[in-house]
Design goal:
Chain lengths: 563, 222
């Protein structure tokens, strides 16, 4: 009989579930895809119902359910010490009522019987997510986990893999680079825990003017103890009743002027750039130091929300010549995978991964053929020629094909595409259709050959670019910087297509593969309205195409029109 | 001749309205998924959801015009301001009549709110927006009524009344004095909890040094 293990993550942001079955099947679902609430943090009841409807008698076959953190440890870990504001304590009690401490109770609302409930430490969930997704089995692996907060900590360093892991270092919440970055995000007028990628994009517009000040007065790294110390005069991490940014910070860096565009406020941009630079240099120093001590290290796995920052990963991989990999979903939303994997290790279950190392562990995208009331198939002689025509006319088409991507980035399964060499098409896609800020560039997808010819990169870490995990920079003296897909600082967050890699051959629509092999560069962004979850069902596709005014949809090798 | 009534200024929370409409869009979308076998109805319901998203955009634009910055993250805003915390979804298809009754009452409330705004608001831009919304909401209410009329009349009657009662209680504001007392008591007891218990009660000493230590602790929440 088939058996299942279920990993679950929720409570902070981006709830998700991952179901592992004894026949090697894996199915990852993000709650927001079904609930349609972006970054849905609630107990993933929509996802669990989806799985229950899909897998017959699921509750009878589940061996274990594993949560991605220790809920009590997590709740106790921050904001409980004496002397904090009354609002902080009130928040704590409210959080308790809504927290994942009630995990078992919630599970019982969905499933009638649950055999075994396990709790995986938060940072190990991250570690095991990387191990499962990156697949490179090697006992000489170094795992660096940095995030905002989980189980009272903000990071950890482990050596080894599987059951042979050893803790090397833990970082307390007061050293949280993640909360620091969220604080800066809020200071810039964006939403914390959501809009950090906007701050990262803005870093390219600034100068590192304040980097020395920050290193001297705000964030210090001790090369001997590997401690990261963040000055509590500038940031507040403990008291949720008060803001993250303190008065001393405002005195030094000022505040955002609401009546002016952020791009016109150079001091703010310089501050962002300086913090980004300082964080990069600290993490690079940390990895270098670790590699010096652990000379046998063959690869470094990066995980935790901090490594969503593709500029940080890009700088690390170009400055350190070791295999350094980040998983396609390094944040909390991916942790359900690690939690499930942890349960497998605990119960000595070896469910092989049929799908192998890929970021397409989501459900198969449903066919829209039966939705004749919403879409009609375009009658064209040659779909490829029609696509070329769409690209040449600077028009946009949607891709809804293959399997759902697990990470935050669209990888040509649920994407909006255009000709990346055309400034008009990119601007149309970015600003008019997606209504994104002009400072956020659209990511291109190109063939590996184009990467080798034009870019400098750490070839051992090329895998990160399969899922846009890192920025890359062009070689000196290469005249491609005028291409419209480059960011202001000449970096590109590209998706690299490799026709020798099975995962690409299997999961990217053949027609798009042909375009890439023939040297086209495709502008690629997620198939959703900015700030909304990615499209999941054909009904979502209809709603989104209507709202975005998208006419064409590519599924497998067919083109459809929205009615 | 009677003097014309003077218009009062009405306080409109665009942020809240934006998320309320958006949440309605989500709920209508979920309802549309029950109509997979009735293609025409599904399309009509999806178009209804599109209207709700469009209304949300109107309110968002008005909010932005005031030069304000969102300080609350969108999932929290949708759940708390938008009302998704009280949403009946996810649910099974058997509850379709309840769902449609709930959506119907929502539309009726939106129409009544629109009337109030039109009576009290002076801004032509806002009035023209509410004119469009009013037309849409009336269409939606008529569509839902048509569906409900085909169902068991007694069942619909009770479900509509039940939804109206639920909305009535969720709208009710606690008397000022009671809420003030509640607030004070809450603060007092919270302070007490964190003051009288020794800090050590909040300390956790479990270790994650290696797999063995984690394995031995695998069923614990701390």
């Amino acid at each position: 009989m088939k058996e299942y293990i279920l990993g679950i993550s929720y409570g902070h942001h981006e709830s998700s579930c991952c179901l592992f079955s004894s026949d090697g099947g894996v199915e990852y679902i993000r709650e927001e895809w079904i609930s349609r609430v972006k970054n849905d943090f609630r107990f993933p009841v929509f996802s669990l119902n989806y799985l229950k409807n899909k897998h017959l008698n699921l509750e009878d076959k589940i061996t274990a359910v594993c949560l991605f953190e220790k809920p009590l440890k997590n709740w106790l870990g921050i904001g409980t010490k004496k002397g904090l504001s009354i609002d902080n304590y009130l928040n704590k009690l409210k959080q308790f009522k809504k927290s994942d401490i009630y995990f078992e109770k919630n599970i019982k609302k969905v499933f009638n019987k649950i055999p075994n409930v396990l709790y995986c430490p938060h940072h190990l969930s991250h570690l095991y997510t990387s191990e499962y997704l990156l697949q490179n089995k090697d006992p000489n692996t170094l795992n660096i986990i940095l995030d905002a907060y989980g189980d009272g900590l903000s990071g950890a360093i482990y050596s080894g893999q599987g059951k042979s892991i050893k803790l090397l270092k833990e970082y307390k919440a007061s050293s949280s680079i993640g909360i620091l970055y969220s604080g800066i995000t809020e200071w810039c007028g964006f939403k914390p825990n959501e809009d950090e990628y906007k701050v990262m994009a803005l870093a390219g517009y600034g100068k590192t003017k304040f980097a020395d000040f920050i290193k001297k007065n705000i964030i210090q790294f001790n090369e001997t103890t590997l401690d990261i110390t963040i000055n509590s005069d500038f940031f507040n991490f403990e008291d949720s009743g008060k803001g993250t940014i303190k008065e001393s910070f405002i005195e030094k860096f000022g505040t955002l002027e609401n009546n002016k565009s952020i791009l016109e406020q150079q001091k703010i941009l310089d501050c962002i750039c300086s913090f980004q630079y300082t964080i990069e240099s600290i993490v690079i120093s940390l990895i270098n130091k670790l590699l010096l001590v652990h000379k046998d290290t063959s690869q470094v796995f990066l995980s935790g929300g901090v490594f969503h920052n593709s500029k940080l990963v890009g700088e690390i991989t170009r400055k350190i010549n070791t295999k350094i990999l980040v998983s396609p979903s390094p944040g909390d939303s991916g942790s359900s995978i690690g939690a499930g994997y942890f349960a497998m290790l605990c119960l000595n279950k070896k469910y092989s991964n049929k799908k192998n190392d890929n970021p397409f562990l989501g459900p198969k995208i449903p066919s829209i053929e039966g939705y004749s009331h919403l879409f009609s198939q375009l009658k064209v002689r040659d779909t490829y020629v029609k696509i070329l025509e769409i690209l040449a006319n600077d028009e946009i088409f949607a891709v809804f094909s293959g399997y759902s991507e697990i990470g935050p980035r669209a990888l040509l399964s649920r994407s909006l595409c255009c000709n990346a060499k055309s400034k008009i098409a990119l601007e149309r896609l970015n600003i008019k259709i997606k209504k994104r800020e002009s400072f956020r560039p659209v990511a291109p997808v190109f063939h590996k050959k184009y990467l080798f010819e034009n870019f400098e990169f750490n070839s051992e870490s090329i895998q990160n670019s399969y899922w846009m995990g890192q920025l890359i920079w062009p070689k000196e003296n290469i005249e491609i910087k005028n291409q419209p897909f480059f960011h202001i600082d000449s970096s590109v967050r590209a998706q690299v297509y490799d026709d020798e890699v099975d995962l690409h051959k299997k999961y990217i629509p053949e027609l798009l593969q042909r375009l890439l092999i023939e040297g086209h560069i495709i502008g690629n962004t997620s198939l959703n309205i900015a700030g909304d979850p990615m499209v999941f069902l054909p009904e979502d596709l209809y709603i989104n195409c209507k709202r975005l005014d998208i006419k064409y949809i590519l599924q497998e090798d067919c083109l459809y029109e929205v009615l | 001749m009677r003097p014309s009534k003077k218009k009062k200024k009405i306080e409109l929370d665009w942020f809240k309205l934006c998320f309320t409409e958006y949440a309605s869009g989500i709920e209508v979308f979920h309802a549309a998924l029950f109509f997979k076998n009735d293609k025409n109805s599904q399309k009509r319901i999806l178009d209804h959801a599109l209207d709700e998203y469009r209304h949300s955009q109107y309110f968002y634009n008005l909010y932005k015009e005031e030069g304000k910055i969102e300080k609350i993250s969108s999932p929290h805003a949708l759940v708390n301001y938008g009302g998704l915390s009280k949403s009946p979804f996810p649910c099974s298809k058997e509850k379709l009549t309840s769902i449609c009754s709930y959506l119907y009452i929502g539309e009726i409330r939106a129409i009544e709110f629109g009337k109030k705004v039109k009576e009290n608001c002076e801004d032509n831009n806002i009035l023209s927006i509410f004119e469009i919304i009013d037309k849409d909401e009336n269409n939606h209410a008529a569509g839902l009524k048509k569906f409900l009329d085909k169902q068991n009349k007694f069942s619909v009657f009770t479900k509509v009344k039940l939804s109206a009662i639920k909305f009535y209680f969720s709208d009710r504001k606690t008397a000022k004095l009671v809420s003030k007392l509640q607030h004070k008591a809450e603060r007092f007891f919270t302070r007490l909890i964190f003051k009288i218990f020794p800090a050590s009660i909040f300390e956790v000493n479990s270790s994650s040094d290696n797999f063995e230590s984690v394995f031995n602790n695998k069923n614990r929440m701390s």
